[in-house]
Amino acid sequence: MEGYLHLNSGQSFKGRWATQPPEKDVTGEIVLFTGMTGYEEVLTDPSYKDKIVVFTYPILGNCGITNNNFSNKRPHLAGMIVYEECLSPSHYESEYTLNEYLQKWNIPMLVHMDTRAISKKIRNQVSAIAIISSTEHQKSEKRSVVGYA
């Protein structure tokens, strides 16, 4: 099923839902995470509260999820944007796949997203606001993203 990322600058990006689509649109500040590892810590780090995080490393979830790597027990981010998710993690301590963990906490994740293009669009903005949605907004609806800031 298709999902969309709409930026407050007017650009939209199409991807695919890896998780169940959210019941309503998810709005938040969009930020980049450029690390090759540490996605488990990002999920539970309170500094990412209510943020939509774009992970620029090409594949995420290859180690799965272990309960002993969390900086806090519950996730804080509002949504995830990735290029590709690993469907079969290979770590001896893995307890969940990334997808299973996100589904458990109702955190939406879009995959097959052009994270390089997204990062180029938002990296020089002081604060970028975005919406994760199941619908392709019309231009008039994009103003609601701008109004959120």
Structure commentary:
- The chain has 149 residues and is of the alpha/beta class.
- The chain has one domain (2-148): 3-Layer(bba) Sandwich (Glucose Oxidase, domain 1).
- The protein has 4 helices and 9 strands.
- It has helices spanning 39-44, 98-104, 115-122, 139-148; strands at residues 2-7, 12-17, 26-33, 51-55, 59-60, 79-81, 84-85, 109-111, 129-133.
- It has a 7-stranded mixed β-barrel with strand order 1-2-8-6-4-3-9.
- The longest helix has 10 residues, at 139-148.
- It is globular and about 45 Å long.
- The mean pLDDT is 88.
Please sum up the structure shown.
This protein has 149 residues and is of the alpha/beta class. The chain has four helices and nine strands; from the N terminus they run βββαββββαβαβα.
Bin the helical content: 10-25%
Mean model confidence by pLDDT = 88
Strand content: 25-35%
Main sheet properties:
7 strands, mixed, barrel
CA radius of gyration is 15 Å
Order of strands, widest sheet: 1-2-8-6-4-3-9
DSSP E strands, number: 9
Low-confidence sequence ranges: none
DSSP helix count? 4
Shape: globular
